[in-house]
Structures are given as C-alpha cells and as structure tokens.
Write a structure and sequence with these properties.
290 residues; Arc Repressor Mutant, subunit A; 12 helices; alpha+beta; globular; four-stranded antiparallel beta sheet
C-alpha cells in the first residue's frame, strides 16, 4: 500500500518561491501557525524578508522600513488585498487573511525589484544575491499563488472549526511561550512593548504578562532585552557596524544605555566583548554566531 504524502503551508510557500523567485511570508496575528499543524512555518517564513530588505535595514534604512510596514499593516486591516512598492522600489502583493470578520494574519509575496538596478543605501551598493525583476506576467502569477495560499489557509481554519475547535478558546501555556519568542524575534529591533503583543492576541497585558512569567520564568521585558543583547553580540562580531549602530539596529535608542545594559548582562562593555572574542579561535567565534 502506497504511503500517503502530506504537505503544509510551509511547503507551499517554498514551492511558490521556487516557481516565481518571489519571497513568501505570513505575519501571524492570532497564533494559527502554532495552533494548527498544517499551518506550521519555518522561522524565516514568519518574517517579512528578502536579501535586499535585510541589506537596507543594516545600512541605515531601518526607520523607513518600520514606518512602511506600519502603513502596510494599517491598510491590511480592511481585509482587501493590494500591491505595494516600498520607497526603495521593491514590489510585493499583500493578502490579508480574514475569518469571521477577524484579521488573522497577512500574507506577503514579493521582494521583486521594479528597476534594472537596486538603489544604494547609506552610500553602500547592494552586493547580495540577484533578485527577480517584476513584470506583468510575474505579478499575475504571484497574485494567483497568493489567492491560492489564502484560500487553503481559510480551508484549514474552516476544517479546524468544523472539528469542534474554536480559535478563541484558551490555549496551552506552550503556545504563549512560543508566540512570545516569535514576536520578539520578529520585532526586537522595534520599540515594542508587552501591550503590542497583548493587542495582537486580544488579551489584557496584565493577564498575558502573568502567563509569560509563569511559562518562561521571566518577564516580557527581560526576554526582549536578553534577545536584543544576543543579537547585538552577533552584529558586533560581524565587524561591519560600530557600537552605536548596533545599538540602534537591536532596538536600543541610545548607545550609552545599550552599553550599560550590555555590561550588566555580560560583565563586559561591547568593545571589551569584541576584543576578547577576537582573541578566540575562529571555531569558537563561529560557534557563538549560531
């Protein structure tokens, strides 16, 4: 008897990327990618991404990227799909996923350049992987796949509900741990607070904070700070940015405050940390970057 083959939304997104050269991600606003097995995603598929976008963020365009994303999310609230071009000339299709008049998340398919050349950012030229150029035919194909993904996600949700489950029922503690860490991983570089996650999950901040402390043993702010410092370590070791720029890219609005927090958590200043790591073996440094 032939073994049954199954696939997930994650597989579909990978296949669409292979077929189109576009980049696919899903901003999960209600935790369905944790709750429903067929909707599980890999970590990078939760993050609005493409190589040029990452280059722009670390080259001084982070504030503009955050402002652009906020405008996109605000427009997606009405549930109507649309295409958008960021200030740097990157095109994407934005597909809100709405169930029972509730916005559950936003699909992004794109990362396609609209011009022959990608714009320099912060005086630096993009040297990363080549990116597909938007065309009428490719735009049509991406839209078709976005609608397909949207309909399959809704079908999964409808079957989930038809099986007697409810999206609004109380979730296991592990769900809150996972969704909190995912939220931090996706937004650590922004000025986010517990109430932002609570609003996304439709919970009172005090109640959510109590659950997070119960399941992790730490408060939201401490988890966020520790993650920021760990990402700062990686950026400091890359040698491409100074301390102030690293602080800014990791969500700290002030370089002096960043250095104070860094020293409190590591026992070293950022420069002392870099100097000490530079005397370690290359293998030790690679291990830390993982």
């Amino acid at each position: 008897m032939e073994q049954q083959t199954t696939f997930s939304i994650s597989d579909l997104m990978n296949w669409i990327e292979n077929q189109t050269g576009a980049f696919a991600s899903f901003a999960d606003l209600r935790g369905i990618t944790h709750e429903m097995p067929h909707c599980h995603l890999s970590p990078d598929q939760h993050i609005h991404h493409c190589p040029y976008c990452e280059f722009a963020k670390v080259s001084g365009h982070l504030v503009q990227c955050i402002a652009y994303n906020k405008r996109i999310y605000a427009r997606a609230e009405n549930g109507v799909p649309f295409d958008a071009i960021c200030p740097l000339g990157i095109w994407e299709w934005v597909q809100p996923v709405v169930f029972n008049k509730d916005l559950l998340g936003v699909l992004f398919l794109g990362g396609l350049r609209t011009g022959a050349n990608l714009k320099p950012v912060g005086g630096r030229a993009y040297q990363g992987p080549d990116m597909s150029v938007m065309s009428g035919a490719l735009k049509k194909k991406v839209r078709r796949y976005a609608h397909l993904l949207h309909d399959i996600i809704l079908l999964i949700i409808e079957e989930w509900v038809r099986g007697g489950r409810r999206l609004s029922k109380r979730k296991p503690l592990e769900f809150y741990r996972d969704v909190t860490m995912l939220f931090i991983q996706n937004h650590y570089h922004e000025q986010v607070r517990l109430k932002d996650l609570a609003q996304q999950l439709r919970l009172h901040p005090y109640y959510l904070g109590r659950i997070i402390r119960q399941v992790t043993g730490k408060g939201f702010k401490k988890l966020l700070t520790e993650y920021r410092i760990n990402r700062a370590k990686f950026r400091l070791l890359s040698g491409d940015q100074g301390v102030t720029q690293v602080a800014y890219l990791c969500g700290f609005g002030d370089g002096n405050y960043f250095s104070t927090v860094f020293r409190r958590l590591t026992g070293q200043t950022p420069r002392e940390f870099v100097n000490r790591q530079n005397h370690q073996s290359p293998a030790a440094i690679r291990s830390m970057r993982k």
